[in-house]
Design a protein that fits this description.
- Its EC number is 2.5.1.1, 2.5.1.10, 2.5.1.29.
- The protein is mainly alpha-helical.
- The chain has a single domain, classed as Farnesyl Diphosphate Synthase (Orthogonal Bundle), CATH 1.10.600.
- Helix content is 69%, strand content 1%.
- The chain has a two-stranded antiparallel ribbon.
- A hairpin with a 2-residue loop joins strand 1 and strand 2.
- Helix 2 crosses helix 4, helix 2 packs across helix 5 and helix 13 packs across helix 14.
- The chain starts with 16 loop residues before the first helix and ends with a helix.
Amino acid sequence: MSTRTGTRGEPVTPANPAVDTVDIAALLERGRDMSAPVLRAAVDRLAPPMDTVAAYHFGWIDAQGRPADGDGGKAVRPALALLSAEAAGAAPEVGIPGAVAVELVHNFSLLHDDLMDGDEQRRHRDTVWKVHGPAQAILVGDALFALANELLLEIGTVEAGRATRRLTTATRKLIDGQAQDISFEHRDRVTVEECLEMEGNKTGALLACAVSIGAVLGGADERTADTLEAYGYHLGLAFQAVDDLLGIWGDPDATGKQTWSDLRQRKKSLPVVAALAAGGPASEKLGELLAADAGSNDVDTFSEEEFATRAALIEEAGGREWTSQEARRQHAVAIEALHGVDMPEKVRAELTALADFVVVRKR
């Protein structure tokens, strides 16, 4: 298959007429619409005030408890779970419990991550811990994780047990990744391999689960589920690489986060780690600045210019370009994995199109 070339000589997604006809917005909307009633019903099980706090987090109400139409996220995971069921020859409805379970775990992680990272904004509004306090952010996160497992186990089938095992394994890896991410903030140096392992745990594991859980609920064998997981894992690495780029150079109006958000949090994301590993004057200067930052409590008072200097050094050392190339490489590996599953061509095109969406998004 031939590869087209972008305006700067960068490889872009191979031409695929079937993929070009996929309506990504409609695909994401389907995942959101089909999972929303079950998600809301699950949240309604929570005791007050956790039900209200969770509703605020999902964008269903504002800080005063009034109905709202907030940004509930991209809904990539629910879309993948429904497609996963179809990849196994089942109806998309079969994947709904898996879609909701994965979305509950994802939001459990967001509630806790926002508190641990000190993030004050998510999806263009104040985070839960800022509005309702740290204790509620922890409790509601815990409750969402419990609900996810409850929802699957209530199905009562062998397939539901298999799906729950995959979800709990993915959740444990996600937590491992967050622990690694936090520990990296206090280290002067992190290798590219360590960073990729962390991001594979933190992001890849749950996306891998999302794109296999519907198939498992639909009766797919372990080989099929594992192959779909491989697609999801590498898609997750591509997704996180793009997230890392947006975490430094993203438009706050699009991302809903502060400028230079990852630099403010001293994160050892892929662009930073790749730049530090590159060698050369820009890499060395960046290393000196970040080492000084690690021993300082003044990062919160840095000017925009100071963050811009660090971002410029990362780019000069090649960290931005390397991460962009890594996103495309992981995208290619994900697409290759799809060849290992016999599925309807329409579903294959939709999974391919979703992968394309992940590497070109701006938020």
